[in-house]
Amino acid sequence: MVAGTNVRDAGDLVLDNRQTGPTALRMQIGARLRRMREERGLSRAQAGEIIRGSASKMSRLELGRHGFKARDVLELLTLYGVDDEDERKSFLDLVQEAKKPGWWQSYGDVIPGWFEQYLGLEQSATTIRSYEVQYVPGLLQTRDYARAVIGLEHHDAAYDGLERRLTVRMRRQEILHRRTGAATMWAVIDEAALRRPIGGPETMRGQIEHLIAVSEGMRNVNLQLLPFSAGGHLALGGPITIVRFAEHDLEDVIYLEQLTGARYPEGQEAVRYQKIMDLLAIRAARPARTTAFLKDLLAEF
To answer: Which of 98, 117, 135 represents a domain boundary (last residue)?
Structure first.
């Protein structure tokens, strides 16, 4: 049996999965396999050869961005010296658990693959930090505002497709309203997003009223306005999202959404975006001042 790995460790993953989704569980499995490989002093390329893959494939597996095959997992466990049958079975049980589809996968006809991966991360998160410059964050949008945004982004889509996208966006918000284990959100919203009249005055008024209600009534959501007076800053190029998980062995994930895809910075680049988010939070108005600003802005609509 590999040092530092035992049946109880594998069982802990099952307990964690009761509060998370298949994406986070897959990441946990990958992180556990990575530690086993490192304890054996093996490179990703060496491990990849055993499963007829490459170092790149091993990287995706260890980051939880690729599904696991039972045969690959068994061969890796053998390579890492894990011969306890109970532990091997526990790992296989986890692999099967991680294959269970999330609710969002039934909307594959309207969700691009690059965004489906993020949804899995979001739905497993305990904390989400975000900065938005164009729109109100999706997790805080009203139905009317979301419908207007989706209509802009998919103006040539059929009605059914627009409604299904709207359903996905509204359902995503449930993570903030769970009776137990609700996610915490810390959102920095650029003033430009709040002044841009999406959907018309009535829609904007409803959206701002919703943000006021959220800021005053939801203890797990913190809103900060980044005013024009803050001047230029490093995040003007686009939105930033940082997803954090309850599991101590999972690192934060940085998500940068673009028009037709997304990036997940790693290493020093990820650290840089963490620092940028910290700076934005410092420069933005405090939550109480943000609420006051929203009430003043409401009068303009």
So the answer is: 98
